[in-house]
């Protein structure tokens, strides 16, 4: 089974949990991107790994012409509900169905690191960009800079160790990784910033549902009971409890913009 098929199935298990309880916390990343790029009605934008379509919606609101692709049919169904009359396609980031030089902007948030080969995925993103176009890469910062790492580690403890090189949320986070790949692909990094994306849950149930919307949690439920996964998430959240059922997790993301 291909990486696309594996990841597509995992991220389709609880798409509404992702769209309601996890993806909204990426809003600072999305807003900074739109602030930097200033897309308008003349901009063709590809949301590469569009998930449940929140960034697509924000980009559409600027007037940009947006197409979204993702490997997860469950997330795509939410994106289509959120953005009717726009194109959202089930496709592989390593084999995009577009002509070379189609888009002014290609944006990938929390997506390129899940490709079977992220260098190939970034190469495809470059191919479909126009000369002078912008490639946006939004990823988790290094694990030690995000409290959510603790919860993801707890979830992953329920799963047998993956083979070396298996895609994961922090696959591109090490210092210089993105820059070295872009240099090899002759993409010029013109902007880089670290962005805080705090997670705030008002109940334990919200926190559990948030992480149940992720691919790692879906993988864990293949090896442990749903109750066990719920309990594991709830226990891992306890260090971040503020009062009663309110939880706060401080997380850090990296935003890169490269030019073709």
Overall CATH architecture:
3-Layer(aba) Sandwich
The secondary-structure class comes to alpha/beta
Order of helices and strands: HHHEHEHEEHEHHEEHHHEEE
CATH superfamily: Vaccinia Virus protein VP39
Tally of DSSP helical segments = 11
Rounded average pLDDT: 95
Tally of strands = 10
How would you portray this structure in words?
This protein has 260 residues and is an alpha/beta fold. It has a single domain, classed as 3-Layer(aba) Sandwich (Rossmann fold), CATH 3.40.50.150. It is 37% helix and 23% strand. The protein has eleven helices and ten strands. The protein has helices at 3-10, 15-21, 27-37, 54-60, 73-82, 118-127, 148-156, 177-184, 204-212, 215-220, 226-237; strands spanning 44-48, 65-70, 87-90, 103-109, 129-140, 188-196, 199-201, 241-243, 246-249, 252-259. The strands form two sheets. It has a seven-stranded mixed sheet, sandwiched between helices. Strands 7-9-8 form a three-stranded antiparallel sheet, covered by helices on one side. Helix 6 links the parallel strand 4 and strand 5 (129-140). Helix 7 (148-156) runs antiparallel to helix 11 (226-237) and helix 9 (204-212) crosses helix 11. The two termini are 33 Å apart.
């Amino acid at each position: 089974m291909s990486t696309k098929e594996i990841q597509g199935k995992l991220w389709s298990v609880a798409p509404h949990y992702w769209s309601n309880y996890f993806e909204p916390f990426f809003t600072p990343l999305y807003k900074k991107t739109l602030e930097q790029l200033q897309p308008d009605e003349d901009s063709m934008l590809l949301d590469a790994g569009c998930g449940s379509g929140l960034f697509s919606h924000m980009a559409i609101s600027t007037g940009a012409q947006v197409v979204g692709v993702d490997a997860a049919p469950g997330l795509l169904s939410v994106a289509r509900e959120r953005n009717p009359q726009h194109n959202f396609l089930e496709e592989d980031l390593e084999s995009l169905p577009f002509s070379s030089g189609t888009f002014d902007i290609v944006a990938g948030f929390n997506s390129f690191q899940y490709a079977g080969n992220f260098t190939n995925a970034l190469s495809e993103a470059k191919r479909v960009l126009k000369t002078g176009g912008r490639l946006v890469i939004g990823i988790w910062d290094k694990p030690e800079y995000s409290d959510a790492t603790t919860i993801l580690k707890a979830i992953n403890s329920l799963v047998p160790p993956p083979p070396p090189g298996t895609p994961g949320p922090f696959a591109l986070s090490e210092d210089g990784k993105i820059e070295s790949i872009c240099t090899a692909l002759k993409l010029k990094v013109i902007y880089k910033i670290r962005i805080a994306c705090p997670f705030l849950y008002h109940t334990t149930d919200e926190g559990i549902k948030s992480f149940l919307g992720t691919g790692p949690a879906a993988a864990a439920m293949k090896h442990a009971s749903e109750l066990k996964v719920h309990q594991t998430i709830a226990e891992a959240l306890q260090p971040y409890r503020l009062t009663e059922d309110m939880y706060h997790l401080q997380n850090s993301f990296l935003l890169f913009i490269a030019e073709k």
